[in-house]
Structure formats: structure tokens, C-alpha cells
Design goal:
The structure is a homodimer of 361-residue chains. The first copy, chain A, has 361 residues and is an alpha+beta fold. Chain A is built from nine helices and 19 strands. The longest helix of chain A has 17 residues. The first copy, chain A, is elongated, with a radius of gyration of 24 Å. Chains A, B: It is an enzyme of class 3 (hydrolase). Chains A, B: It catalyses: N-succinyl-(2S,6S)-2,6-diaminopimelate + H2O = (2S,6S)-2,6-diaminopimelate + succinate. Chains A, B: Keywords: Amino-acid biosynthesis, Cobalt, Diaminopimelate biosynthesis, Hydrolase, Lysine biosynthesis, Metal-binding, Zinc.
Chain lengths: 361, 361
């Protein structure tokens, strides 16, 4: 079994991690290596569920911080083993997100007495369909393993803090009509024409901008699909507009749906929810978060896409993305990470978790 | 080779015709039988092109009338041979349109000296794609064979005169935009929202009603299809609305297109003509038509669908549908025709073509 050497710095450790392939669903070898390495650390309790590994301190601190990352990568694209060149580490997972995992492991190994209790979460199957997601499984089976006052997901963010995330709701708005031959169109009722007020409403919609914890979120309400029509000579009796609402995390799922129903009130025959994921509040006002921002530096940005930070938010744990990788190179053949950014991330997190003299590195 | 007996009445002759199968593309046996029978009639010149047969008089009359019908049927549905029961003839093609063909053949055989010169057109491949249509082929290769002052297409019309036909134009209206992730919708431009004014214009459109030769035509402008969308989380950069304009035959093809362009002026990125077929003026004001209406009786109705009468109209020959079959039973397993309607149609046409003592039947 491959061994991990947690005495290496985070960049060297990233190379070790990259050289143990762990494409989604094939994380076992790497999960075993991570579990074995963590079990060497007497200050941590280690838990395992499938190919997810959780390790945590139990020091009775006032706050608990969760550091989370996924072990899996997208399929290898001729870019393993890793290769170090001029301060840049190339290879599958260097950015997304074995450099983040390396930082987690380094903090686990080198901060035995952190100023806050720590939970390290290493999970599987993040790069595939949401239903297979290892963090989702843990949240359902062992929510207590994920408990905490604040979570940092070390997904690639180029060393910037990205706070919370938008919610997303997708609904199908159906209009109906009556078929007729288009040569006798007055005998029918055109469902596509019936969708005109829906599109008008969308085109005229003024999306809200709202500031939460100092971050500005911009919402958006958009048709992402429209479909209607029977044949070139038939008045169509059905039309469907698929609408995607991306909303700021100060609205809940139900409020988002109520808003969409209100916007299109009276304009559709039927509304069907196709997909719904709540947003995540940045929670940057919490003491743990404020100290984190101060230690890490920079200006937090809102996260627009939907990420696993929302799973923590759903458990009542405010969460941010903060990782050394560059998201622009995630999933690419030329995926890479900068050694200095990896080391900087390790150093910043250590500083945050050892400040006030609790425990120098 | 099967023989046709033109001394039978039109209903009996219909049965003979039905009993010679002639599904589209397999009309040869029937076309041969029709040609052979017509060549027995010394007052007719007989022409042949593929499986189309044309026969005509050359009496130097002031007007020429064309009687046209197709020889082919839709696929047989266990309804051949024909069956006569209580004055109803059952079988494939009884309505559409071997009863009409039988009437043509009876007039050809029994009116050697008509009051107007006559052209009988029997053509192939009407029941399949327009490009294969035998009348279209004749119009292109031998337009002089179709020349005349007035044409009667003996398609099933339940013995009613249906005058002219609507034109039909189908255009694709394209709107464009710019793709973006729907979480950052302000980075893109939504092409589906861009189609809103097109649908509004359609929903608000007041179609024209116009009287031509005493027939009221109702136009219609309708979306018959709409398509747009890339993925559930992408602002779409393209949307296409397919619009069908059914117009009264006082507009030409170019005028119809100009009208559509004007209606949607400024609302689309691109307009592509998908399909265009001109309408046909009923031409009921022509002397031959007026005499026809008087002889046949009843109130002419406008024809809303597009039919082969428009091919005559395109050649400058006003045309109507008038045939003994019931269009509601065309293409059906229980296709049938009433013997008395077939005989009535034969009698009415003969009366029209022999009135004023030119030539009693």
C-alpha cells in the first residue's frame, strides 16, 4: 500500500497524493493511505465510512472548525504522475483538489493543539452525479461528524475566500392550448402564443442585488429552455418554459419557490419543480469566520455557482471555499498548481488555527 | 392486364378502379389500364409521362376545361377488393379519389363533343411527399398539357365546390444572445427572452378576413414551433420560433413574405424561409367557372388547406375542388363512398359540359 509522508511540506505532499490515482469511485487506495496516516496521529479520533475518512480533535475548545476536501479527481488525462517544473506542479488533481487535501493533512499532522477544535473531512465521489456525493452521504448518515461552527472547503479558489453560495431552483412552466390545423387556426388555441406573457415577464424582470455579510449577491431569473410545437401545420397545444432562478442565500428554498410562483402568477397552466438546491449563507459574522478572514487576508467574494459549502450550510454550519488551486485549470489536461500558493495556504491556515499563542506550528 | 369498362356507370367503374391496387409509386398497372381505355376513344389525343396519363379534345372551343385526379392511394388497409352494400361502396380509394377518377373517365367516354374543350389529367404520387407529385412533374415538364381556362380537381369534397386555396409560408425567426453560466446571468444575453416580442406580436396579431369571388378567406399567423436552450444552467444564446402564415390567395408569395417581415420588423436576428406555397384564386368570376357553379349548384366554400388546385393556379388556371368522395373518410380503413353521390357528380359534370344543346349525353 502506498504510504503518505506527512512530514513533507504541502506541495511535496500534493505530489504524493497526485501519484496515487483516485478517479471518482476508485478512491479506496488513497482513502486507505489517508486513514493509515491519520491513525498515526494520537491527538485525532479517526472515523471511516466507505471511502470517506473523518478525523477530529476533542480538546473542548469554544469553537469547532471543519476543514473539508474531496479525495477523488476527474478521469486522468495522460497527466499522472505529477511533474514539478519551475515552481509549478503539474498533474491530475493538483488544483482540484489534492493541493487542498495536502494542506488539510499538513494541518492535521502539525497542529496537535489548535486554538479551535478541528474536524478534517476527506470524502469521495464529488466529481460525479450529486446523488453519489460522499459529503451528501455523510450528512445523511453521520451529520454529527460534520458538526461545527464554521467550515472551510478547500476547493480551488486561487487563495481567495468565496463566501456561501447561491441557491438554485429550476421550474417548468407549462402553457396549454388546443390543436387545430394551422389552415384553420381560429379553431384552435396556440399554447406558444400563450407563453408570450411568461417571456415578457422574464425579459422585464429586475433581479435583486443584496448584500449579506459584506458580500454582494446578484440574483438571476432566466429561461434556460423553451419547447413547443407539434408539426409545421398544427396549432400547438402545449409549450414548456424552463426557468432557472439563482437566488441569494437570504432566501430559503420555499421562499424562492413562492417568489417564482408570484412572478408568474396567472400566466401558466401548471408549474413543476424540476430541481431545487438551497443557497448557503456566508456566515462571515461568526467569530471563527471573522478570525479566519483576518488571518487569511484579502476581500471575500461571493460564490455564484452551487458547491458543497451549501451542504454544510444546510446542517447549520456556515462555510466558505478557500483553496490553493486555480479553478480555471480544474478538469483540464494541463491542470497545475503553484508551489508558493500551496505553501501560502498551509501557512495561513496554520496561523489562523494557532494565533493567540494557543499552539505555534 | 386488367381492363376497364367505360360503359359501366361511374359507381361500378369506381369498383373496378379500386380493385386494381395503385398505392403511390405502384400506379403502373392502373395507369396502363387507363391509357389503354382512353386510346379506344377516337375523339381524344392521349399523352403519357411516367405513370401520368393525359387525354384531350381539340374541337377549337372558346374555352378549355381541365378535369384532374390522381390515380394513387394511401397503403391498402385490408380494404381491397371493394364491397358494395346498401348503396355504399367500401374500399381503399373509394373516396380519395377513385370515385372522382371514375367520373373523369365516364365524361371522357360519354361526351365526345363537349361544349368546351376538355383535358383529362390522371396523375401519380399525390399521396406522398410533394416533390414526387405527378402533377408537379407535369407542370414542370409539360405545362402546355395542363393549359386551360378553368380546372376541376375531383378530390373528395362531398359534392361541394371548394374554391381556390390559401397560400402557406413557413419561416424560422432566429434570435441570438450570449451564453453564460446561469449563476452569473448578467454576463450573458438571453435569446429566449429575446423572443418575447415575437410571441407578443403573434399573440396580438389580428388576422385579416377577406372576400374573394364571394368566398370569405380567413388568414392566420401562428407559431407552430419554438426551440431554445443549451442546458439547465446556461443562459441560451439561440432561440428559434417557427411561424406559419396561412394567407388568402389575393396575396402572392412575395407579398406574404413581405408582410411577415413587416410584422416582425426589428424583432429577429435572422429570418429563413422554410417552406412557401402560393395560394390559388378561386377564379369563380370566369365564364367557365360561373357556368360550372350554376350547373353543379350549392354555395361554393373556400378551401383552407393547400391542395393541388394551387398548382393549376400557379399556371394561371383558376381551379376548384369538386368530387363525390367524403374527405372525412379519406385515408381510413373504413373508407367508403355513396353510390348516389358518385352518380350525381357524373350527371352534374355532364350537364355542365353539354348544356346549351352542345352535346347531350
Amino acid at each position: 500500500m502506498p504510504q503518505l509522508d506527512l512530514s513533507l511540506d504541502a506541495a511535496q505532499l500534493t505530489a504524493q497524493l497526485v501519484d496515487i490515482p483516485s478517479v471518482s469511485r476508485e478512491e479506496k487506495v488513497l482513502a486507505d493511505a489517508v486513514e493509515t496516516a491519520l491513525r498515526e496521529l494520537p491527538h485525532l479520533e479517526v472515523l471511516r465510512d466507505g471511502n470517506a475518512v473523518v478525523a477530529r480533535t476533542a480538546l473542548g475548545r469554544a469553537e469547532r472548525v471543519v476543514l473539508a476536501g474531496h479525495l477523488d479527481t476527474v478521469p486522468i488525462a495522460d497527466n499522472v504522475p505529477s511533474r514539478l517544473e519551475d515552481g509549478i506542479l503539474w498533474g491530475c488533481g493538483t488544483s482540484d483538489m489534492k493541493s487542498g487535501v495536502a494542506v488539510q493533512l499538513r494541518i492535521a499532522a502539525t497542529v496537535p493543539e489548535p486554538n479551535r477544535d478541528l474536524t478534517f473531512v476527506f470524502y469521495d465521489q464529488e466529481e460525479i452525479e450529486a446523488d453519489a456525493n460522499g459529503l451528501k452521504r455523510l450528512a445523511e448518515k453521520h451529520p454529527e461528524w460534520l458538526a461545527g461552527d464554521f467550515a472551510v472547503v478547500l476547493e480551488p479558489s486561487s487563495g481567495e475566500i468565496e463566501g456561501g453560495c447561491q441557491g438554485t431552483l429550476r421550474v417548468l412552466l407549462h402553457t396549454t392550448g388546443e390543436r387545430a390545423h394551422s389552415a384553420r387556426s381560429w379553431m384552435g388555441r396556440n399554447a406558444i402564443h400563450g407563453a408570450a406573457p411568461i417571456l415578457e415577464r422574464l425579459a422585464a424582470y429586475e433581479p435583486r442585488r443584496v448584500e449579506i455579510d459584506g458580500l454582494e449577491y446578484r440574483e438571476g431569473l432566466n429561461a434556460v429552455r423553451i419547447e413547443g410545437g407539434v408539426a409545421g401545420n398544427v396549432i400547438p397545444d402545449a409549450c414548456t418554459v424552463t426557468v432557472n432562478f439563482r437566488y441569494a442565500p437570504d432566501r430559503g428554498e420555499d421562499e424562492a419557490l413562492a417568489h417564482v410562483r408570484e412572478v408568474f402568477d396567472g400566466l401558466y397552466e401548471d408549474l413543476v419543480v424540476d430541481d431545487s438546491s438551497p443557497g448557503a449563507l456566508p456566515g462571515l459574522g461568526r467569530p471563527a469566520a471573522a478570525a479566519f478572514i483576518e488571518a487569511v487576508g484579502g476581500t471575500p467574494q461571493p460564490k455564484y455557482g452551487w458547491t458543497d459549502v451549501a451542504r454544510f450550510s444546510a446542517l447549520g454550519v456556515p462555510a466558505v471555499n478557500y483553496g490553493p488551486g486555480d479553478p480555471n485549470y480544474a478538469h483540464k489536461r494541463d491542470e497545475h498548481a503553484h508551489v508558493d500558493k500551496i505553501l501560502h495556504c498551509e501557512e495561513r491556515l496554520r496561523a489562523w488555527l494557532t494565533l493567540n499563542g494557543s499552539n505555534p506550528a
